[in-house]
Amino acid sequence: MDYKQLQGRLRTNILKMHYGAGSGHIGCSLSCIDIMTAILKFKKDADTFILSKGHAATALYTILNETGAIPDGDLDSFYKNATTLPAHPAPLKYAAIPFATGSLGHGLPLATGIAKANMLKGNDQLSFVLMSDGETNEGTSWEAAHFAVANKLDNLIAVVDCNGLQGFGNTADILGNTASPKLWTAMGFEVVACDGHDIEALAAAWQKLAANKNGQPKMISARTIKGKGIKEMEDKMEWHYLPMTEAQYASAQKEIQSTYGLDND
Amino acid sequence: MRKHFSEYIEKNLADREDFIFITGDLGYNALEGVAKKMGPRFINAGVAEQNMIGIAAGMASQGYQVICYSIAPFVVYRCLEQMRNDVCFHNLPVYIVGNGGGYGYGIMGSSHHAIEDIATLSGLPNMQCYVPGFVEDMRTTMDEMFVRRRPAYLRLGLGKNLPADMQLVAGGAASQPTTAPQLTIISQGPVTGNLLAAVANCTQRREIDIFTSNTMPLVALPIAMAASIAASKKVLVIEEHISVGGLGSTLALLVNEAGLPINKFISLHAEGYPNGLYGSQAYHQQISGLDEGNILRVINSYF
Questions:
Q1: Does A28 contact B at CB distance below 8 Å?
Q2: pTM listed for this prediction
């Protein structure tokens, strides 16, 4: 199946939300929207998903709108006063958002706890978490990783959005690649690398990992491009922060229409 | 209290499938029975307190009630953001249990003390802190904690049994009320033992009302306590916790909000490490003026 138009449509919605709000974090959401789509479009209802890199909230909101978990009207309130959709996910607002996030390093412990609960209950539910590569700097990620390995949580699937950029520089230049598949493999995770913008490949990767009940927690190291889809934004740290001007927004939407084939509708 | 705590767990909760007990790699000579009885629902999270609280929140989101045990400073300070963001924001039934609150770990040093724990935790949303003074109200606070099913912190210490001349009341314990109190003393936690020893040697014993308060934040003055304060107009607060964000500052606010006229209000509290020296719990209590002798001197200053 071709997901190109879906990828384009979700990007269009993300851009619309950010432009309407005058907000940043655009590059972060464009980096991981395809990963979220590959999980949230295909996971079972009972499987849980935690967006640990909460600053990519617009990607979460748009894909949950696509799946029907967030109503259209709610999206219009993004970033405004009295909204249920602030810049980082809020607690206890939507069943599909089990945890508020925004401070990094919380998602993997939470998802690990859910996986442990599922294992104790003997059910077959999967616990997904999406992390940023920079987020693996956090010690809690390592604490949770060791716990997951020691407890043989092969129902845990961590996906790392490896765009190589973090808050104030290149990931490689700051603490080194703390999301390195070699490191996580050495800890005991079963790790596969995958194109983080190929929905079919991502879905196939996690489905294959999930089926492998070998006692190892799973990780997908997803190669991504921050700002994917907008040449002006791609692989540029500043698009972690910048809002779009009117001209940039018009240009970005036009580029998405063209790249993802939306202008052929 | 640690022994009584583990006995309570073994007797009341260990068989319940909806309960999880997680330790931060502590519990030698105390939790062995709990571990044996709970089997796979007893989890050693290792020396990783932040992750312990994170996984507890994840498990609680799936329907479990989760007890997280360590010594008080380790389970309060290291994982504060996990308590706030993961547990309290989501109003989950995760109960952190800290052994040796206050100066409980004495000569182990400041890293092992917890004298700012209530100030740190009691302002978090949905959080309730329990500081029982006696074995008996440790049990009642645990009853309440598990029925409430919301975030909680239980601070354990070397509490003794409730004396015969005091009775449990909502939120703590109280002495037999006097007819015309000249002083109202409100105490929190096992340091109450020093107070009771002091009062036993006090000639004005029959003119003093004693209350213990075991639940923080204290949001309203209990009726009997307010009546005693209104009558005595004199208050002494005793707590093994710093003055900021503890019982004394809370009572000062509540007394003022209630419009109760006060002639004298003294707070005896943990002073930290004013001389930069270290010792036993009793030593630190003495340095802070929380020892029996100083408490008696302060009480006598009211008469």
A1: no
A2: 0.96
